[in-house]
Design a protein that fits this description.
Elements: E1 6-11, E2 17-23, E3 38-46, E4 74-81, E5 98-106, E6 109-112, E7 117-120, E8 125-129, E9 134-136, E10 143-151, H1 156-159
Antiparallel strand pairs: 1-2, 3-4, 4-10, 5-8, 5-10, 6-7, 6-9
Length: about 170
Amino acid sequence: MSKGRRVVTGHDANGKSIVLSDGTPPQNHPMHGEAVGADFVEMWSTPEAVPTLASLPESEPNDRAFTIMPASGHLLRVIEIYPPRMGGHRTVMHRTRTLDYVVVIEGEIVLVLSDSEVVLRPGDVVVQRGTDHAWENRGDGVARMAFFHIAGEFSDELLAKLPEPLELME
């Protein structure tokens, strides 16, 4: 698993900008390896819709139980989806109550929707708006993507169109 480097900034006693931490973020969850077919790399999360900016964070945001998306707030996660030769497979079709900005960093990945598939390459961006979807790496190398998850709510208009009971991955 390529955990990546996380640099967290803050403020000293005089209000000057400083580096609070620089290194690999802790990963206290089982979502990695061949059995999963991917590596979920948790970078930062906050339960607040509008984060409070203080000199120091209250705690390490990765010291929480793993969820696909916390019930509120924001989450930055890097996911490396393995190719089939490394145990990768199509994810289950799923829907989350989130607005997601997904940036493809490396490799090629297929976004599978109810009616179509979209091949994505480095630099491509997906704005995922609570739709049913799956991901599949059909290539030979790891596909690496950054996911910016923001907690959202479905409108009454959309809820009237979605299947009942509404099954969400959380």
